[in-house]
Design brief:
Helix content: 25-40%
Structural class: alpha+beta
Radius of gyration: 19 Å
Number of strands: 3
Distance between the termini: 13 Å
Order of helices and strands: HEHHHEE
Shape: elongated
Oligomer: single chain
Amino acid sequence: MVEFTDYTQTAVQLLYYPPYHSKYNPVERCWGILEKHWNGAKLTDVQTMLGWAMSMTWKGIHPVVELSSKIYQKGISLTKKAMQDVEARIKRNTTLPKWDIFIQPT
């Protein structure tokens, strides 16, 4: 996000939902609606799963559904030095330092 902020020259504020507060997270609510929509149907293959996802509606809108075949690497982490550089660039809210982060472009 620091690189994105610098690239776009746009300040970014990240607001995270605290653990166990999924009722406030729209993505989690969407998943709940999808689970009710397929109502125990057997998702036996990719096409069946995509079909159910495409046919659901949330707030009257059908989602855009795409199958991603990208493989993501596991275990990627920053070195302590790299993380220090990132931390030097971000400003954490003193009241909610884990959930409210502001990044100013250089």
